[in-house]
């Protein structure tokens, strides 16, 4: 009996220590100097520990993204078939409805993605302010989420406009099918896209509410380019593989529907079941939710890296101030 009591006490002590260590780990907060590997590790663990809390907080934006992606599933075959026939046609083909639909769906996707990113970054911002994982309720944070979504939309629009202004002339010069267009695109992403992540994080999480002030942080993005690249590569690689797997059923069904519709237009019979279009919409919506959840694998590590950069700058500023104070005393 005595041995059993000792065993129980030891087990309770171990459990208590484990809980204390986990709480200490969780209470470290966002703004702390870390290595980029530690940022990646913490960024992967934080949403995993609080996945239910995050899903309850993010469900409106997840649903919005799923609805928009469901609309893509509804019009996917019409758009792809129209574009295929347009590219293969020897005479002009009218694309008014498919083009209009494509533009509307692209705008809705941009708004839904901005809403989702604003929703996620609001959770990260509250975590950064509290130093520990906060109680998240969507209803109480509507205004904050709305403002964060507008900031996310601004960041996305600037990125799209700048990239388009740079890549469109190259495409017109070299030709759309030229491999060098792809090479130039990757170079632009590495040269501008990687450090631009610092601007996005500062605009979403920092005290600045002016995009042009946050744009000055590009220099910090270049200074920590290697860390940003490693986190984007590692997190993006995992996210890309998982997202590709989640989109596989939707892609197979969508291609089957596309091929079937092309055959019908050429006069061939189809044996595709009538419920396949509904399955396409369902799997588009499901894949959207799963892919958005997997985006945490980059958003949270990048947030930790931003917090680490800010902590290092603060430590450096404090050290320089203390050094000046000591020099003044001499």
UniProtKB/TrEMBL annotation:
Stretches that traverse the bilayer: 54-75, 95-116, 152-174, 180-201, 222-255, 275-306
Alphabetical UniProt keywords: Membrane, Transmembrane, Transmembrane helix
Domain of life: Bacteria
The protein's name in its UniProt record: Glycerophosphoryl diester phosphodiesterase membrane domain-containing protein
């Amino acid at each position: 009996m005595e041995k059993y009591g000792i065993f129980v006490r030891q087990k309770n002590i171990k459990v208590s220590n484990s809980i204390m260590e986990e709480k200490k780990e969780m209470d470290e907060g966002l703004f702390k100097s870390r290595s980029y590997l530690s940022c990646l590790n913490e960024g992967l663990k934080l949403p995993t520990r609080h996945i239910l809390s995050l899903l309850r907080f993010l469900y409106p934006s997840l649903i919005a993204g799923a609805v928009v992606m469901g609309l893509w599933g509804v019009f996917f075959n019409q758009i792809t078939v129209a574009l295929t026939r347009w590219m293969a046609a020897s005479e002009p083909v009218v694309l008014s409805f498919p083009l209009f639909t494509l533009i509307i769906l692209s705008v809705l996707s941009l708004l839904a993605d901005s809403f989702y990113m604003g929703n996620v970054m609001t959770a990260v911002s509250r975590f950064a302010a509290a130093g520990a994982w906060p109680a998240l309720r969507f209803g109480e944070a509507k205004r904050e989420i709305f403002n964060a979504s507008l900031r996310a939309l601004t960041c996305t629009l600037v990125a799209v406009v700048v990239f388009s202004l740079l890549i469109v002339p190259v495409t017109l010069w070299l030709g759309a099918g030229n491999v060098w267009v792809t090479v130039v695109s990757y170079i632009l992403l590495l040269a501008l896209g990687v450090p631009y992540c610092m601007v996005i994080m500062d605009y979403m999480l920092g005290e600045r509410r002016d995009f042009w002030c946050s744009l000055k942080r590009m220099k910090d993005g270049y200074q920590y380019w290697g860390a940003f690249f490693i986190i984007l590569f590692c997190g993006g690689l995992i996210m890309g593989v998982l997202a590709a797997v989640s989109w596989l059923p939707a892609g197979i069904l969508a291609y089957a529907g596309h091929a079937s519709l092309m055959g019908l237009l050429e006069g061939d019979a189809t044996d595709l079941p009538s419920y396949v279009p509904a399955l396409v919409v369902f799997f588009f919506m499901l894949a959207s939710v799963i892919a958005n959840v997997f985006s945490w694998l980059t958003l949270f590590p990048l947030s930790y890296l931003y917090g680490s950069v800010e902590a290092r700058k603060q430590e450096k500023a404090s050290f320089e101030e203390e050094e000046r104070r000591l020099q003044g005393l001499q």
